[in-house]
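=== RUN LOG ===
request id: a7f3
mode: sequence -> structure
chains: 1
length: 86
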Amino acid sequence: MKHIALILTCLLLGACSKTMWVKPGSSREAFSQAKYECLRENKERVSGVAWNAYGGQAANTTRVDKGMYLACMNAKGFYLQRVSVR
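=== RESULT ===
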């Protein structure tokens, strides 16, 4: 029973927090520039085609490699920090 209470407490505390990018001494403009550069560097085009008996469908979009994006932001000195929301 104690384990269930501990798990529920952790879930409730986790629901009241979010993560933010942090770099001590950095400005909002520096964050925006770093975010833009990292998103641009780690975008990749994804295309696909699907066919069935009724016809076909094509898709062409871009996605960001999240792991590489996180690594890029970390390399620029930013890190994710959990903050509580009240």
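=== NOTES ===
The first helix runs from residue 2 to 15.
Residues 3 and 9 are 10 Å apart (CA to CA).
=== END ===
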